[in-house]
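Now for my pick.
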Amino acid sequence: RQFGSQGISTSMSALIHLIFLLLARWRWLRPHYVAIKINANNYASKECAEKELRITQLITQANPTHEGRYFVRTLLDSFHLPGPHGNHICLVFDPLREPLWMLKERFAGSVLRSDVLRPIVRMITKGLHYLHTQSHIIHTGQFDYPDSPSVFKY
C-alpha cells in the first residue's frame, strides 16, 4: 500500500519502520505470520478506524475462556504508524483462513457437503454467541443508526 503522495520512498520508509516496530515488540515470541490492517488517516477514515479499534478491543477482552472466542477475529496488538500526512492506526491480527467461497470450489458442483457444512455452522454460531453474550455486540452491517444502543457508542 502506498502512503501519501511520496510514492515508493514513503512506503519503504513506513515498511522499514513497521518491521523495526514489530521486531522490538514481539521479539520474545516465535516467528509467525500476522495480518496488519493499516487504516487511512483522513478524518472520516480515522474516526472509523478509532471506532473499529475500540470495538475490536472490546471483543478481544470480553471473556478469553469462552469457547466462541476462538471463532471471532481478535486483536493481537495495535499501534500508530507515522506517515507524511499524520498517523495511521494499525491493527494486528492472526491471518484468516481460506474463505468459504474458495473452500466450496474444491467440492463437486461447488457445493459444500453437509458433513463439512455442519461444523462450520457450529463454529459460526459459537462465534456469534460470544459476540452477543460476552461482548454484547450485534453485527448488523449497518453503522449509521442514530438511536442504536451499545456498540455504536463505543
Observations:
- Confidence is low (pLDDT under 50) at residues 1-11, 144-154.
